[in-house]
Design brief:
Length: about 260
């Protein structure tokens, strides 16, 4: 369920391994939670009422009653989904990933778009093949709205271009892991130049997210599937959402 998955992701750093296992078990019984007492549910998920109460408080709820209420509302919302998402688990996972990605960044999109609209010197660097394809498409989309974006081919291009960066520049770095392999020094130089940096990476406590001015992060279930390609759909969504916001606010002087 999207809600349980989202809560597990955003509270991951403060959850114990046992609490993460309880949340995983809760997903299996999500449909009956609204009808269960805390004692009944704790028995089913091999926990205790005290531990379960402590967990829902850690997730941001006032208590078990509010937790049940939110779960019930979420279930009603899911009933309105198209039937094929119930039989196609891959499609359901992708939709959930995109929804969670949006929630993780919804308060950041407008800020990043303001930077895009206010800068005349914009650069994009994708660290891998799929990332490069996505930033190339993003650059083409922004041309439609009168914004020129320079796409950089590799870390050497980034290093050379960084010599020209200043406070009027915007650099967008797109990485899967965010580990800054082979270009950490260049990134530190860019940051020390007071250049605005947008970092886009998988949801994790990575170097890129710590170093940039604005960090956009995504989740992607395809990365944990056995013998499966990386779909990159949530990553593509981030850039499509940015392009969409540019289109909406392009001529809105009050927005900038």
């Amino acid at each position: 369920m999207e809600l349980i998955k989202y809560l597990t992701i955003i509270h991951n750093n403060k959850l114990t391994n046992t609490e993460q296992m309880i949340l995983k078990n809760l997903e299996n019984y999500i449909n009956i939670i609204p009808n269960l007492t805390i004692s009944e549910l704790s028995e089913i998920v091999y926990s205790s009422p005290t531990s379960l109460h402590r967990l829902v408080k850690k997730l941001g709820f006032d208590g078990y009653t509010e937790f049940k209420y939110v779960i019930e509302n979420e279930l009603h919302a899911h009933e309105e989904k198209l039937d094929f998402t119930q039989t196609n688990t891959y499609l359901s996972d992708v939709i959930d990933d995109i929804k969670i990605t949006y929630k993780l960044n919804e308060n950041k999109f407008d800020t990043v778009v303001r930077e895009i609209l206010s800068k005349d010197d914009i650069y994009c660097f994708g660290t891998g093949w799929k990332q490069k394809q996505i930033v190339d498409n993003f650059a083409n989309d922004l041309l439609y709205y009168g914004h020129s974006v320079k796409t950089l081919r590799n870390t050497d291009d980034l290093k050379i271009a960084s010599r020209q960066f200043n406070k009027n520049s915007l650099v967008i770095i797109v990485s899967l892991s965010g580990n800054l392999k082979d270009y950490k020094n260049t990134m530190e130089h860019i940051k020390n130049n007071n250049t605005s940096i947008v970092g886009v990476s998988i949801f994790s406590d990575n170097l890129l997210s710590k170093l940039v001015t604005y960090s956009l992060q995504y989740v992607d279930s395809s990365l944990i599937m056995d013998n499966h390609h990386w779909s990159a759909m949530p990553l593509s969504f981030i850039f499509d959402q940015l392009s969409h916001s540019v289109a909406i606010h392009e001529n809105n002087t009050d927005f900038i």
